[in-house]
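Notes from hallway chat w/ T.B., transcribed later so I don't forget. T.B. wanted the structure written out for a chain they're using in a teaching module, and asked if we could keep both sequence and structure tokens in one place. Agreed to drop them here.
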Amino acid sequence: NNEGIWILNDYKIDEKRVYPHKLVVVTGNKSLIIKKIEKNPRFSKRILQYDKTTEIINSETEIWNIKKALWNLYYSANQLLLYQNDDMMKSDRIIPDNLKSKIDKKRALVSNHGKGYCNEENNYAFIEIRNSINDHFFRIEPLTRYFSWPLIIVVIDERIQDHAENETYYIDRSDDCKVPNPCYCDTGIPYKILYSKTNILVPPKKNCNLNEQNFNDSYKEIINYIQDKAKSKSAEFLVIHLGIIEKLISAFNESSKSKSYNKDNEISDFIKNIICFQNGYEIIEYDKIIITSGRGVPHNLPEDIRYVNFSIVSQCLIDVHNKFAFTEALYSSRRIIKN
């Protein structure tokens, strides 16, 4: 327990407790345990089903080796293998063959302070910029870094949208720049390009202005964007600010002639019935939705949904800009138990 590994029988799972662990390993009566923890915001979304866990624990004397073996199994189950090649760590321009199928056979590049970005943009589907502020996120096992690259994350927040539309990341000039002026060396890279190159999707303001005082005129466009981009088969997470949901509810109530939703206690119902469903079919899995807010713990936050404070979103997408850190924060998100 002190080493971060808890061993629980299914009958010892506390229905009221929020568990902080990053990986849940299920053995034994899988159907009963999975029913309790799958799509349950009190647990990590990372679940590994493996019958021979006891063999690993009994054969390894070092806790780190046990953890490493289980993580390796988890990523292998997701078609990703553990890589420890020193050359791989030095050159992030190379993606192993087994990863190419996971990222649609497109290559990736981690560029030091953006140097060379202008030359590589059209050659790589994914580009993450490495700099002194976020450097510590790259000193990790390669498998975890690779795993975050192909995941699509949809972010619906007015501050992130403003940053994407109005801010620029200035890169180091490349000595062998092959792009005719002006290029990113001269103009910097718009954050909307950086986000798209790391599979973080933010709605364009011209179609969905999230800063509008109300959404009476844009309600349908915003809902359509969310449903189109955050479909469960394509997106891993939908991060949406609580204030956006409240404005969507107000706009829906204005236009609806039958049903209306209370912003204080029916947010969960609105998300499930209006955002997650389209033409009678569930197109967005409810457990993939994460609410964010900067208000601390909002009084109207549903207890059956995952939550991250906006300070985390801002740090990962504005202050530091690192896809891996953002992905880890979202996988670690849990429901909030109110006092």
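Follow-up for T.B.: The two ends are 26 Å apart (CA to CA). Might be a good example for the class.
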